Amino acid sequence: MHYVLIKGIDVRQDEEEQNNKYLGIYDGLARLEDAYVVAVQKLEEQHKNMTGLLGDKVDYIVKHEKIMINVFDEFTGRWHYNVKPEQLFWRKNADTDNYKMVECVFDNLYMYEVKLDKIKRTLSGYVYDDALPRYGRHNEETITVRFNVDYSYQILEMLEHYWGGWNSTPTSVEMAKIAKKWYEKYDAELIKISHDTLTFTCRKLSESEAKELMDEAEALCALIVDCKPEEMLEHLINKETFTLWWD
Of the ranges 40-44, 59-63, 85-89, which is most confident? Predict the structure, then answer.
């Protein structure tokens, strides 16, 4: 099989096809997928920059210009045009795949290194990938990342030296053990990570459980920062979410 990546108009007209731009030819799906994702990103940015312009031609381009894949089957000698990417790129069924989705805030050197070393964009979103090479620096941003784990606290174990261990902050391994304990006690799920904060959701807590959680956070030298100090107990009882912050 040979895969041809094209930027062009998705309406099959001879005069339009003459203006198609050929982006590359690939003999493997892995390289094709990487190139497809990058090309789609660039085209989305181009179209975003065109949205302020007026004219029927601009509207037509934004509506119909796409990244397309044509496939040549050497065995049959036939071409297959504008093949849908989901037909080519294998994905596990989301209902059976073990993964957790967490927001990651890339806001300091170590979190940038996580993004550069471990985070990959695919057709199904961002995924944590141990095999990635390093790339250039990017601006601070928040993205949702898929981690192939059964429990959200296991994500902290995966972060290793990239998170924690500075000043009074627990190491990632230590925090993973605490997060596991909270999962078992409070149904706490990790939903957001930055270099100095962790955000969890949990079930509705009793007053005694909320007080216990406050004591446990204090023992970690962490502040619960999504409310005023005098509202902390009420917040933990009623809001079913909390954010820890380390100075």
Answer: 40-44
- The pTM (predicted TM-score) of the whole model is 0.59
* Ramachandran class of 72: left when φ > 0, alpha when ψ lies in -120 to 50, beta otherwise: beta
pLDDT the model gives residue 136 = 45
Cβ atoms of 198 and 176 closer than 8 Å: no
Q: Distance between CA 236 and CA 213 in Å, rounded?
A: 8
Tokens 């995924």 belong to residue:
127
Mean pLDDT across 1-26: 76
d(CA 100, CA 177): 17
Phi, psi of 121 (to 5 degrees): -90, 130
Query: Nearest Cα to 181, choosing from 220, 146, 236, 144?
Result: 220
Rounded distance between C-alpha atoms, residue 132 and residue 232, angstroms:
41
Which two three-digit tokens encode residue 130?
């141990």
Identify the residue with better confidence: 122 or 31: 31
For the record, the structure tokens of 25 come out as: 């030819």
Quick check: 25 and 4 in contact, CB under 8 A?
Answer: yes
